[in-house]
Amino acid sequence: MFFLSRSDTISNKPFNICCRKSSLSAYDSGDPVITGDGQVNFTVVLKDGYTISSVTASGGYKNVKDTGVANTYRVTKVTGAVTITVTTEKNETTQTVLIGDTNLDGIISIKDVTAIQRHCAEFELLTGAAEAAADTDGDGSITIADATCIQLYLAEFSEGYGSCGQTVGVTV
Ligand SMILES: [Ca+2]
Ligand SMILES: [Ca+2]
Asked: What pTM was computed for the model?
């Protein structure tokens, strides 16, 4: 899976460079820029939530360097085909979630019931922390039963309201 490639001639030597995705959908890139005698700069454009963990190269070159400019690297003394491999990692953070607060406004209200109904009707899907907050009965899926739990919680029933009102740490 190649995401950028270029062939050119530098100092009368055949040259080409290509970069390979190692983590699909994590990043993209523009064209590499040939700046001088066998030297190529390229910038990795990361998708939101990802950082670069390493950039390595193989083939006909001497060095791969960090240029000091964010996510921009330089391959020097290129003499032939070079394959660059960029590995990325997803940034993960832990967020505290109030079970039942599906619209994430900090309180449990009838609006949270509506959010689950809209999710079930596929009008507006709940994702991330909201998805975690919506599974009030803890069965692993979001159904109308989760909306019922919130209604019972709001009506102050002594049971049947699942985990509504509890807080949990969720990795998003
Ligand atoms: Ca809410
Ligand atoms: Ca559920």
From this structure: 0.56
